[in-house]
Design a protein that fits this description.
There is one protein chain. By secondary structure, this protein is α/β, with parallel strands linked by helices. It has two domains: 232 residues, HUPs (Rossmann fold); 122 residues, no CATH class. 32% of the residues lie in helices and 15% in strands. The strands form three sheets. A six-stranded mixed beta sheet has the order 3-2-1-4-6-5. Strands 10-9-14-13-12-11 form a six-stranded mixed beta sheet. α9 packs parallel to α10. The structure holds iron/sulfur cluster. The site of iron/sulfur cluster has 13 residues, from α7. One of its GO terms (biological process) is hydrogen sulfide biosynthetic process.
Amino acid sequence: MAQLQTIPTRPARVAALNRRYRHRAAIQVLREALSDPELGRVAMVSSFGADSVALLHMISLIDRTTPVLFIDTQMLFPETLTYQAEVAAKLGLTDVRTIRATPAAIAAADPDGDLNQTNPDACCDLRKTVPLNRALSSFDSWITGRKRFQGATRSEMEFFEEDPAGDRIKINPLAHWTARDVADYIANNRLPRHPLVSKGYPSIGCMPCTSPVKEGEDPRAGRWRGQDKTECGIHFVNGKMQRIPPAAPAPFVPADGQPVIVRDSGFGPEDWTGPILDLASDADLDDPDLRVGDATMIRIAFPSFTDGRGFTLARRLRVAGYKGRLRATGYVIADQLPMARRSGFDEVEIDADLARRQPWPHWRDAADAAPSYLKKLGRRAS
Ligand code: SF4
């Protein structure tokens, strides 16, 4: 009589893989995984971000024809697109596939490109998770560059995980690497770094949702800064998107003479290291020499506390489609943050003395009560 064969469940397969690969080095995991029948058809998913080049280099040494899926959210930094093309060419990767949301999906869910401001989870779902799951439908397993050191949600990650978004297995060859390991690998192999790393971005995602990180901050602190969001939704644990509860904001003590930035999340130090375009509040946006679209940060100077032209200018920039960071500076006070937010500003820059005189819970509550400027623009459009 024929014997019934028991097919192992996916959790059992993942557990067996983790046992079998337990003592392998990262490149060995990668090498064996690419031809392991247990893992089937394997693709790599890469953001071509700050650390990606290490894993991409390993792939290029093992098999340059491995499919590499690059998710272009159409919200990426221009530097990332340039870097992606350069790295793929340098490493000789022959099957890099750019994945995007369909134009119809974008037109239906995010026609103005501002969903990231009002509902970042939905934006990530639209621009990352859905296109990626569609692209992965012809694969059985996928390689990620995630590492344990990158945060609490990843601290116990193994080489292999179930992918709850599909009947697939995720492979994390760098799970046990430290930030130092990555940096050493990149330096020892003379690999090109993403140009934004040297500008204070240790983790690089989409332009509207990534800000520079100060020394001593968590490397991912610049991703969705100030929001209760730490993952893009592509990565889940036990079937659920992982969130870290937001920490209570600590009172900020401004340094003497240093400007203080007022945001929805509280007072904070200056954290911008990139170029800034300074505009007077009466700047002429029709001036052809004024290339505001190129600026990732615009600072609008208020000439006096009673002069509202800066608010008008900010509204005009937002209505015209400006997506970069907008800051009010000059003669503004923290209490004007709600008004500034309604006008399209992201933040207000005030001097340290002014910050010391304003108890932060007061203005934070005021800021929380401010309706989103994007909702306001949405109402106007409808
Ligand atoms: S990171 Fe930001 S812009 Fe990019 S898909 Fe997510 S919410 Fe949208």
